[in-house]
Amino acid sequence: MTNAFDVFERELWDGRADAYEQGFARLTAYTVGPLLDAAGVGAGTRMLDVGTGPGIVAAGAVRRGASVTAVDADPGMARTAARNVPEADVDVAVLPSLPYGDEAFDAVVGNFVINHVGEPVTAVRELLRVLRPGGRLALTCWVLPPSGALALLKEAMDEVGVQWPDDIPVTPFMEYGNPDAFAGLLREAGAGEAGVEALDWEHVIDPEEWWRTGAMARVGSNAVVLARQDEATIAKVKAAYGRRVEEHRRPDGEVAVPAHALLARGVRLSTG
Fold first, then answer.
1. Residues 79, 81, 84, CA angle at the centre, nearest 5°?
2. 186: CATH
3. Domain count for the chain
4. Strands 46-50 and 89-92: what pairing?
5. Where would I find the Methyltransferase type domain in this sequence (predicted)?
6. Short-list 218, 236, 110, 213, CA closest to 168
């Protein structure tokens, strides 16, 4: 069932594949290895990558010798993934509905996708449906409320006094962005052996590129809100953003911003 948040997400990501690949996808690449490890992905694993984006996780699984199927809700993202990972079978599919039979995969992974669905519990149940009994599910999400790299733009907007519009929904996943709640989500959906671990790292950015491929490219809800502002307000936000960036500049001149995520894992219980 599609709700208002799902409709907003389809509009949000339409036409954003290139900008996402050039910017934000590089931040999410850190978690690919831990995600695949948690799902037990190796040679011969039949793996589904949900919300593949530009195909970074799919490419990592192919390098491990897995048989990879990947889906994304946005056709542009799916085309990008198919170009980047020609070894994978790439489809367009919108959670919570997947075009695959029951028990079709040994492993299902999703890198920062569960926070982009309108009904998280229903979505996880669908991911478990396509897993074989004993198959592993692994999902990442951001720690919420956002901080570090994820919050640079929002904190700058807050400093300037930009108000959040009533017509832009907040992710329903907000209540699950902590370890206990994320594990509880998997258990509620029916996963066994549910567990969550924290993933923390520093991401080196070029501040101007990060601004161009994120804030000015309308990648993410914050950027959509910023795009509605007048030029003077945008300039004030950029100045505030610049001040916050400088707080993370190292002695060697690089800007390294912290990132905080969660990795959840579970298994499909036996149907017997």
1. 110
2. 3.40.50.150
3. 1
4. unpaired
5. 48-138
6. 218
